[in-house]
C-alpha cells in the first residue's frame, strides 16, 4: 500500500516591497506500508536480533502479545487444535481450521506484529501444499513452517513420530516455493524436519540442507535433545537462519532467549506460552467457583479491561469519527 502525503510549504518574502516568488509545488512524501511478510523478511535480512514470538492461539492471546509490544507472533498448531477443536495435536486440524484462525489473528492489526503460522505437513500432496500456501498468503500470514512428518502426524514433542522419505519432503518444499514465487509473495518459507527421533541428527542436517538448496528461507530442526545439539545445528547450517521451537517441559531442554541469541538462532517461538498458562488460570478459577461459589477475579479487572485489550477504544474512535452516536454517553 502506498500513501501520498502532501506537505504544505509556507509563502515567504525577502522584503515586504518585493514581489512574491513563483509558487513552489508542494513536495510529495511517499510512505509505503509494507505487508507483514515483507516486514518479517526485512527483520531477518537487515538485523541480527533474535525475533521472539510468543505462541498465540486465539484473538485474546494475540491481543495480549500486541499489548506487550512483541515484534512478531506465532500461531501454534497445538493451541489451535486445542482451542478450536478441543482435541490433542494429532494432525486433526486441517487447512480450513488453521487458515481461518491465522487469518483472524494476522488481521487484528494488519500492520501490527507479523504472524508466523504452523502449516503442519501442507495437508496433502503438491496441489494441497500449493493451495495451503496461497491461502496463507491471502490471509496476510508473514511466514509458515512445513514439515516432513507423515500425514497422520502428531505434536513435535511427543514420541512415536514418523517422517516421509526425503524425496517427498523435497516435493513439499518445492511446491511451497513455486507457489510463493508464482504469487510474487515475500512470505517466509520455514523448512521443518522432525526426523531426529527416527533417523538421527545427521539425517536432519541432510534434509535441511536439501530444503535450503530448494530455496527455503529458514530452517527448523524440531525436538533438540541437548543444548549442544542445538548449538551445533546453527554451526552446521550457517549462515542460513534457524528457528528454535522452545517447548518448556517438552523434548528440548530449557533454552532462554539470551542463550538462543548467543547460539545464533534468528527466530524463537514459544508454542505453549499462552495455552498452558490459560489452562492453569481457567482451571484455578473454575475450581474456586466449584468450591467457594465465586470465581475470584481481582478487583479492577472487569469487562471493560478485557474489552480495552481487544480494541474497545479504537472501535469507539471509529464510530465517533464517522459521525456515529453509539458512544456519546460512554461505555
Automatic annotation (TrEMBL):
Highest taxon above the source species: Eukaryota
GO molecular function: methylisocitrate lyase activity
InterPro entries: ICL/PEPM, Isocitrate_lyase_ph_CS, Pyrv/PenolPyrv_kinase-like_dom, Pyrv_kinase-like_dom_sf
Reaction(s) the record says it catalyses: (2S,3R)-3-hydroxybutane-1,2,3-tricarboxylate = pyruvate + succinate
Pfam families reported for this sequence: PEP_mutase
PANTHER family: PHOSPHOENOLPYRUVATE CARBOXYLASE (PTHR42905), PHOSPHOENOLPYRUVATE CARBOXYLASE FAMILY PROTEIN (PTHR42905:SF2)
Family per record: Belongs to the isocitrate lyase/PEP mutase superfamily.
Name under which the protein is recorded: Carboxyphosphonoenolpyruvate phosphonomutase
